[in-house]
Write a structure and sequence with these properties.
about 475 residues; about 70% helix; antiport; mainly alpha; disordered N terminus
């Protein structure tokens, strides 16, 4: 699997002391209010021009300060401290995983790989509608073997390059990419954090996940078919440019694939966090960066033999040199800090007792099918990994068909809003001012059709599991 299996805050942090139930306490009410206000401000980023990370990081800090004050007053600070550190460890794994992925993506962009793909697509004379489907289908299948954030950023870079002269195409294509990546990750045991959690818990056997393939295709294809008619019929301007990548481009692609394999091996064979494998993969890029830096002079010497004009040599050096730390510095730090705010805020709400309260209501008082559909809708507002962890903690007595249903809904429900998944949040950072919360929101009714269509397909095709 290519996703970091981060650990969320446990509802019970040690055997000696259990967390206090603060759901009816002023701390609980204040935490809900703070989280809600921060999320609203994050949604309004394009209006307020306030970076989304600022309110979310502040919210996380204030929520945990309130919790810590209560626990310190009762001389049980170690309970809250342990829970916070557990949640922080989970974010650290996610952060490191994403950092390496983004570093590789920036490196590939620097070497001209995405620009090369853009030139190739333009040379094939594809229309915007054809490009819409090509990028969507590629996103769907890539996300089944790699995390949805990396896939979305990769395909988003391609769409931005191909459709840079047509904002309408880029906006619609980004929505399609978010839906496709979330759908593609929902049928693979290692394609998304939700499927990973369910698989590791042993609720669904490995092979059974692939019974969600057709429902996942329906989830992607229905909205895409409807959005197709709103994609411009025009064709991007033809390009006479010749594909040309900088030195080391192909090697970096191979090293990225090797890094993903390393992360898979760390998780599946060594029982170590995938983030550790990704960091090992970063060293592949760092050593290769060293090689490029040490050999750039030799390349210039060879070039000077072919080109007598010495003025070409500095230009070549600037064009071909490579610094991996420069690529790390170019990361979308606002997005990473936003993740921190969301994860730590939700961990605080879970520690207070709200997620357990919600789980008990869902599976104790209403039909499990309705409950699982609601879980998917909730995942558009709250991280789907957190929602799934809460469901697994509740451990409801439901059939395997229902476990597959909640895996599907939690995985694809995040597509309903731009902030509902890492793919959406990442693309908002990448395509600032073009793909926004509001531009995604107007397509929510269409995405909702795909959401319920996939549920219908699951009941129709997988009735044997119920």
């Amino acid at each position: 699997m290519c996703l970091p299996s981060f650990v969320l805050a446990e509802p019970s942090v040690n055997a000696a002391r259990k967390p206090l139930d603060l759901t009816q306490h002023w701390v609980g009410y204040v935490a809900i209010a703070i989280f809600s206000i921060a999320y609203i401000l994050a949604m309004l980023e394009e209006v307020t021009e306030l970076r989304k990370s600022k309110p979310m990081v502040l919210a996380a800090s204030l929520i945990w300060i309130a919790i810590a004050l209560i626990y310190a007053n009762g001389n049980i600070s170690e309970t809250a401290s342990h829970s916070f550190r557990t949640a922080l460890e989970g974010f650290a794994e996610l952060f490191l995983f994403i950092m390496v992925s983004m570093a590789y993506l920036n490196a590939m962009e620097d070497r001209g790989i995405f620009e090369n793909l853009r030139i190739w697509l333009l040379s094939k004379s594809f229309s915007y509608r054809q490009l819409f489907w090509i990028t969507g289908v590629m996103s769907f299948w890539l996300s089944s073997v790699c995390n949805n954030l990396t896939t979305a950023l990769l395909m988003g870079a391609v769409v931005m390059a191909v459709g840079k002269d047509n904002k309408r195409f880029v906006t619609t294509a980004c929505v399609n990419i978010v839906v496709a990546t979330n759908a593609g990750g929902s049928f693979s045991p290692f394609g998304d954090i939700t499927t990973l959690l369910v698989w590791q818990k042993g609720q669904v056997p490995f092979a059974s996940f692939y019974s969600l393939l057709v429902p996942a295709i329906v989830n992607f294809a229905l909205p895409a078919a409807l959005m197709h008619y709103f994609v411009p019929k025009a064709q991007p301007a033809a390009s006479n440019e010749k594909p040309a990548m900088k030195r080391g481009a192909v090697t970096i692609i191979v090293l990225f694939l090797l890094t993903i394999i390393t992360a898979v091996a760390f998780e599946n064979f060594l029982d170590l966090p995938p983030a550790a494998g990704m960091l090992m993969g970063l060293t592949y890029l760092k050593f290769f960066s060293y090689y490029l830096q040490q050999t750039v002079g030799k390349t210039n010497e060879q070039h000077s033999v072919l080109k007598s004009d010495a003025m070409d040599m500095p230009k070549l050096a600037d064009n071909q040199s490579f610094d991996v730390f420069e690529k790390v510095a170019q990361l979308e730090w606002d997005t990473l800090l936003f993740f921190y705010g969301v994860m730590m805020s939700v961990a605080g709400l879970s520690f207070i007792g709200y997620l357990n309260f919600a789980s008990e209501f869902l599976y104790g008082k209403i039909d499990p099918t309705i409950a699982n559909i609601l879980v998917g809708i909730f995942s558009a507002f709250i991280d789907n990994g957190t929602i799934m962890y809460a469901v697994l903690t509740m451990d409801p007595n439901i059939s395997q068909g229902q476990w597959l249903l909640v895996t599907l809904t939690a995985g694809v429900g995040g597509s309903l809003l731009a902030i509902g998944s890492a793919a959406g949040v990442g693309l908002m950072g990448q395509a600032k001012g073009i793909y926004t919360f509001s531009s995604h929101l107007k397509w929510m009714p269409v995405i909702l059709i795909g959401y319920f269509g996939s549920i219908g397909a699951h009941f129709l095709l997988n009735s044997r599991f119920f």
